[in-house]
Each structure stands twice: as C-alpha cells, then as structure tokens.
C-alpha cells in the first residue's frame, strides 16, 4: 500500500483493499461522572471538540480508502448512535447491537464474522469510540503500514509514544524490528496499568509504549486466532450472528447465544497469547480521555492553567478544570481542582485523585442512587424528556419531540396525563379522536386512555406534561404500537 489511507479515492478500488473501521462503543466511562453515565456515556458527549467522541472517531475513518463502518454498541444506545453518525454524514454503518456486554473479544469477533460474510480478507481497524487524537495527520501513514502487515497475516496494534510516567494506561514492550517493515516491531509483552514506580521505570527505559487498544488485522486472521485460543467465543458469536435480526438500521445479535460468550477482553483472549502480534509506535496525540484530569490536559487553558467550560467564574484560581452545564458556578482561592456541575449532581476533587471518581460511582450504586447511572434528561429515539418536579402522586416533565417523530401508541394503568404545548404543534391521538394541539393549548388524557404524541412540524415540539396518580414509574407503559420496535 504505497499511499496513505486518507489520500484521494481510487475510482475502481477492489473491496478487499478498503479498510473496514470497527468502532467499539461499550462501557459507561464512570471516571467522567457526572457527565458520563451508563444511560448516556462519554462517547456521546462533545468533550474535546464541537463533535462528540464517537463522531470524532467515525470521521477519523471516513472517506477515501474506507468502507462503511461496523459499530458495536449497547442495545439501549442504538438510536443515539444512529443519530450521531447521521449528523456528521457517516452513512451505511452496520450497527451491531449487543444484547448484553461481554467485553471486547466477543464484540470484535462479531465484527470479524460480519466482515467475513462479504470478504474474509477484509482489513479491519478496531478502535474505541471514546479516544481522542490531537495529531490525526500522523494516523494515515501508520495505518497504511499496518494494513500492509495485516494482509501478510499478522495482527497489528498501535503503541503510543509515552510523554510521561502514566499509571492510568496499560503498556506494550516492543521487541525486535519486524523484517521487511520499517517502523514495525515484535511485541515482547503487554503490561497492566502499573503503579507509580513501575510506570516511571518503564517510561525511562524507552522500550515501552502506551497500549492504545487499537488493532488492525484481516477478518480471516482474527477468526483463526480466536478459534485457536477461544473457540467457545467463536461458536457462540457465530450462532448469535446466524440468528440475528435486522431491524431498521440495526443488526440485533441473538440474546441467548451471545450471552453464552465468556466475558474477556481481546488483550487476554488473543493479543497476549498470539505469535502474530506486531506493534507500530505512533505519535497521534492519543488519549483515552479516561479521567477529568486527562480532559484538563487536552483542553486549552488560560494564563493560570485553568480550563473553564460553561457558566463559570474563577478568581485567584490556578491549574483547575471547572465545567458547568447550566448552573452558575463560582470558584475562588483554590488550585488543581476538578469541579463538574450537572443539574442533579456536583463533583469536586483534586486533580491528583481524578482516578478515584470511579470509586464514588461505585458507592452511589451501592446506595441505590439513580444519579450513578442515569441523567435527569433521558434521551429517546424521538427526542428527550426531563423531570422538572416530582411529588408523591404527581410529576411534571418537559418533553421535546424532534420534527417528524412520534411516540408509541400506548396507555397507562396508574396515571393520567395533561399535556400543555409551549412550542410547536402536536398531533395527538386520544382513543378514537385525532386532535391538533397548538402553542398555549392543552389536552387531557384520563387513566387508561390509548394515546400517541406526534410532531408533524418542522421545528421541535416542546410540551409540559403533568402526570398524576398512585404510581408514576416509566414501566407503567403498555405499548400497543411502536415504530422503533421497543417492547
């Protein structure tokens, strides 16, 4: 491959010469709580640019030299993923839905099986949906070399040249140079996240690279190595793929078969055991954006070393990251702090303890706090809703429906609802009636009424919903018809 992946498109390029991007969108990013939660994790937030993390990843592997991406994501995030890809013009993606999380080895195996259905010799570039690259211009040449090596039957990973003794990353020890491929090396070993002393020793040695978690290989090679080391995963994934269901833009893996997969990462399943492993050192400005301290490092700073995002005022403050998503936040007389403010939670910690945020999330989960996993704003395929006020027998929500979208045809056994339109126009089904509700108009839906809400207009529909009744849980929804195939 004599040219870089991102050069001008070849008019008659054979399918097997295209690189297939594989984007893994799993995990909850709990170290970036309270912004990142399992209901809406960090890959769907614009943390380092105007685009979200998954959009940045998709655009990095879009255009000449690439086929449509394969995206593996949680079933609950399917509509968010599809919409975010659409927003940046990434079309034709194959979105594989995991019915249950089983780590990266089963996810990558599923992507390889799907690619092999069209071309067993397809070159796959596997990457996480939530990593940042500040030097994307350096990726093309390294990827071109990796694709060449992959076509020769090896598995390639990119090792990032360390800039410090980092304890939050895994490491790769590079070995001898790979014959015939300038810039590529054999792999001596993978090293788990080290303590501070070990990280310093490895950094000073110059032999170790940060483990980026990116891999390049052909579908044929990866499936052969998986068969060798983890045949149970291959068998379960093949069954899940054979029994998959196509649904709108998604491929739903069979739940029973996929759940039988062992829970194991690709590092443990293959990378640490195969004799085919190769590493290419790279300077991509890479970060896994795994903590608020990492975001502080990536972000532009003022003269005092501060990062300020949102409605923030700082005085006599240095080396701090302060983010507020709406609420006025004032900080004074501190240094090296991380302050993150959401409408339902606030995080304050020293930058040196950024990795400890995960422990706080674990405590919140143990205490049964919904804030550990869910945002006050809940996204749905038709838009979103958020709770404004909640009492023992009533609840007030703001509901926003995107243009052309509609909720399911449904009814409730325990609550009545009153809708007041404050922006846009609503098309409301109420039993046998069809009602057009305009701004400053309202409609009442008694308990048990079969109803549906639609936005027939060209601007978002916003309404205030007042619920009343003895039980107001989201599980009191009986869906009679749903265009999004929800049960």
UniProtKB/TrEMBL annotation:
The keyword GTP-binding applies. Pfam families: ManC_GMP_beta-helix, MannoseP_isomer, NTP_transferase. Keywords: GTP-binding, Isomerase, Nucleotide-binding, Nucleotidyltransferase, Transferase. Its EC number is 2.7.7.13. GO terms for molecular function: mannose-1-phosphate guanylyltransferase (GTP) activity; mannose-6-phosphate isomerase activity. It is an enzyme of class 2 (transferase). Gene3D superfamilies: Jelly Rolls, Spore Coat Polysaccharide Biosynthesis Protein SpsA, Chain A. SUPFAM superfamilies: Nucleotide-diphospho-sugar transferases, RmlC-like cupins. It catalyses: alpha-D-mannose 1-phosphate + GTP + H(+) = GDP-alpha-D-mannose + diphosphate. Residues 21-302 form the Nucleotidyl transferase domain. Residues 316-364 form the MannoseP isomerase/GMP-like beta-helix domain. CDD domains: cupin_PMI_typeII_C, GDP-M1P_Guanylyltransferase. Residues 368-482 form the Mannose-6-phosphate isomerase type II C-terminal domain. InterPro entries: GMPP_N, Man1P_GuaTrfase/Man6P_Isoase, Man6P_isomerase-2_C, ManC/GMP-like_b-helix, Mannose-6P_isomerase_type2, NTP_transferase_dom, Nucleotide-diphossugar_trans, RmlC-like_jellyroll. The keyword Cytoplasm does not apply. It comes from the Bacteria. NCBIfam families: GMP_PMI (TIGR01479). Belongs to the mannose-6-phosphate isomerase type 2 family. This is mannose-1-phosphate guanylyltransferase.
